[in-house]
Amino acid sequence: xxxxSTTLPKGVFEREPGSKIFSIRFIGAxxxxxxxxIGSLSAAKAAVERRRTQxxxxxxxxxxxxxxxxxxxxxxxxxxxxxxxRGADHAYGQHLQFKRMIPVFGKRxxxxxxxxxxxxxxxxxxxxxxxxxxxxxxxLASFSLLFRIASEHDKVPVNPVHGIRRRQEDNTRVRFLxxxxxxxxxxxxxxxxxxxxxxxxxxxxxxxxxxxxLRAQVGDFDEPTGMLTIxxxxxxxxxxxxxxxxxxxxxxxxxxxxxxxxxxxPLCTNRQGGxxxxxxxxxxxxxxxxxxxxxxxxxxxxxxxSRWVMSGVPIAAVAKYLGHSTxxxxxxxxxxxxPNVNAxxxxxxxxxxxxxxxxxxxxxxxxxxK
Length: 370
Fold this sequence. Notes:
This protein has 370 residues and is mainly alpha-helical.
């Protein structure tokens, strides 16, 4: 933001305070006043000097008038990019977020939208809808994606989202289903949403992210090895696929979903037979009807991971199954669930002492022991 104490060069103006979008005004060799939207301050300074030089040389500046680019145009470009680069399921999830933004920003000139407006909208939505910090960050990332793609295609001069800080998320929360809670949700799905029961079971037994389950294809289960292929796109540094051992329940769920479908077809489909793109319209209501509290679809992944760790599966293996970018993330979230870990730590520390010389708690607290 150009502060009041900052003196801008003659002919350079900030479009709106805090926007960091600068324009220039100058009288050309044709004697007419011209205005151009440039972008950054350094680019605007260079542009105004270039126009003055052209005027001295008697050259008439060619000002290219471009069509107004609306926020809706940015959404169209972003959705096209997402579908081509990340798949239809990812594009659909982003579409739902863009859809919430459009009533406020849709018809606006994209270059007129400033950082303060975006931040105000995010804060208002977070308060009204009681967003978690992670939801706030996902919407912020969607705004950033829109303007980044537009900037790469020279449709906006700067990204107004730049500089808005992400909220600190609580990544230590680990909520997992008890066997009784699993039975309650399963019973509701069996009676209210039977066509999605196998999707729930597959997610619960693989620890895959929602997008990964919905991206699954017929043929992803290898019977000879008993391994399920998980297709990931979250971390570009990791392999596109990883393998997870399939439990008998996961195998039955996979076969139920794959029945009657061609190899390579989407494994998870909706009631109309099309590809399934989300959990929220069937799993969230099922959780509510079951009476299970403080549980979200994302916690299916935590349930699988917690059960592996509590059963003694090595942390390194769990990290591999989950597709974590680093083992530190797995350790931070799940190591406290390792069986007997506290008892083992105490026993290890006390093994260095001669049992005969270790005072009892009563002896150590008695005044004569001091």
